[in-house]
Amino acid sequence: MNQFLESAGIALQAIWANKLRSFLTVLGNIVAVTSIIAVVSLIQGMNAYVTDAIVTDVGADNFTIQRNPVVRTQADEERARSNPSIKMADADAVRKFGDNIMAVAVQGNSGTKINYRGQTLNAVRIQGVSREYIHFSTFDAERGRPISPTEIDRERPVAILGYETAEQLFGPADPIDKQIRIGNNQFRVVGVSEKKGSVFGQSQDEFAVVPLGMFQKMFGSRMSLQILVKPRSPDVVKAAMDEATVAMRIERRLRPNEPDNFGMFSSDSLLALYHTATNGIFAVLVGVVALSLVVGGIVIMNIMLMVVSERTREIGLRKALGARRRDIIWQILTESVTLSTFGGMVGVGLGFLLALAISSATPLPAAVQFWSVLMGIGITAMVGLFFGMYPAMRAARLDPIEALRRE
After folding, report:
1. Nearest to 264 by CA among 121, 83, 127, 388
2. Can you tell me the distance from the alpha carbon of 80 to that of 261, in angstroms, rounded to the nearest whole number?
3. Does one domain contain both 277 and 380?
4. Element (H or E) spanning 41, and its range?
5. Which of 76, 175, 394, 406 is deepest in the core (most CB within 10 A)?
6. Residue 349 vs residues 36, 287, 296, 302: alpha-carbon distances, Å
7. pLDDT one-digit tens code per residue, 294-346
8. Cβ(86)–Cβ(166) under 8 Å?
9. Per the domain annotation, does 245 fall within a domain?
10. Which structural domain range is residue 391 located in?
11. pTM
């Protein structure tokens, strides 16, 4: 053990004695690990960001039924064009058939302008909701109150505003009980939703929620709707989705051999679709960046070969004094691994700083994961070990007599 520690000490002294050369040797590793850590941090941040956005929009245990399913081919797109619109009758069928379903709400989506005392917002997203919407956490009222089921049934002209919509229309003033104009209709503001933020620079707080009856008066009753379904518990989501599928097929009189003419989405299915679309891209991106580690490893191997050539007499003297082959191998490998790992540690720090800088300057989020630190340092240690093995074996095979003769 003492001999191993002595060899490690000699290797570290050699690195310290040639600081500039050592730094230039690991510069390739620093650049490679910086790129890998930055890319991985941005990918992890994006995954977490998209997951949170999907769960917030759909709900962790809820699922939605829409007119069109996921379109993957031209044939799917052509078939989806003939899908009938989602109607209230579809929601009634799902509500009656689903034993594992707790609540079924209907939602309409469109856009129009909102006006308050000369302040106009164009193309604001308007959401019409049925009375069961209060069972879904995606709708809330941080200030004021939600729209009551009675107001929805009686089609009262009341509205809940998104956080940014209220801020742009009213500024610091209290918007509750103020009269606004949505399209050509007057509405009374009864609540303001909590701030949701933005997704890739697209605000999620520019909207207004109104009773579904008022929504259909404004935009027409033929517009396709969306059904929101809440299972009785998270354990029965799959069973509830199966029941909703059966209810929709029965309501639409689909034969057993006919495909579904509607789409059904849960947060899990949307996340699976996102990962399917992006995992391959992310893997290729990380792989391309990781190729620079090979270049860094080759540089380390070349420098270590030069080190062995420069220190031939030193190695011969150590062997003449009793150093074994494994002591020489340990010395060279220690120097190689230390150099490579040092580059990895510097690269990890710079990678995090680069990811945070990109996240601050752009809508792309970044997430620093502890495992990526271990990955960056571990990979560079393996690179140093792999590419240092050949110079170490070459040094260990030197004949001590020939080595001592060499100038």
Report:
1. 83
2. 7
3. yes
4. helix 19-58
5. 175
6. 11, 20, 18, 26
7. 777 787 788 777 777 766 777 777 777 777 777 777 777 887 888 788 888 88
8. no
9. no
10. 2-53+273-405
11. 0.64
